[in-house]
Amino acid sequence: MTSNGKPKVAFFDFACCEGCQLTVVDSLQTHLDLLEAVEIVQFREAISDRGEDYQIAFIEGSCTRQADEERLRKIRAQASVVVALGACAHTACVNALKNLHPLEDVRRWVYGDQAEWYDTYEARPISAVIEVDAIIPGCPIDREEFIRVVKALLLGKKPPLPDYPVCVECKLKENVCMFHIGKFCMGPVTRAGCGAICPTYGDGCEGCRGFIPAPNENAMKDVLADAGLTVEAIMARFTMFNTYLVSARKADGEERR
Ligand code: SF4
Ligand code: SF4
Ligand code: SF4
What tens digit of pLDDT does each residue of 42-60 get? Predict the structure, then answer.
């Protein structure tokens, strides 16, 4: 805490495109009140300071190499509250697509002749290495959800996180279901909170906000039944943003067999 009583906040990035940090910058431009309520001590995209004394850490990006683990643990040891900022930190996002291929091939494709210079291993969400107190899902994050989470943290409350599927928001918007116009959509098993933005603009949901809790029980099964699909069939197509989660579920299922 600063001498003026404001909590100190830091932002960190690991393997990612940094689009979620850009969304944070964008959000704060219209919420100057929040900038008054905290002191930002580290945020590479916005300031040059690199303060190491902070209470709230927002971490963007996935863990993709051994050195990331040490850095994540150091942040965890300092921060009272750690927030996974965006899908790269929350689910390993598109970074985990490389997990589907032999690591050596991936290194050669990306780094060519210098492949051996680069230390890298399977992409994982940060929760695979450290305890996470809150998540802000999405690729990128929703700017208003970021503001809601920060306000909750400042009030000492648990940040709100929808546990129902995108279909609920989609139906409230009275959208035509993608399945009714011959498109595919992962809304029935994807966590809501984005306002069903993709179906609203005519595209099927790709699942960037990760699974709802217990998809087998909580999916909008009536939507899937209309399309002749099952929860399992739809989750098998969750590769774009959720390769890590699908693999983890599969490994978990095999372990319990
Ligand atoms: S979640 Fe998406 S927008 Fe955010 S850092 Fe990762 S790839 Fe970029
Ligand atoms: S399946 Fe997709 S388009 Fe259909 S209701 Fe659900 S979110 Fe909307
Ligand atoms: S509709 Fe699906 S893919 Fe689009 S932002 Fe929402 S969760 Fe992400």
Answer: 999 888 888 999 999 999 9
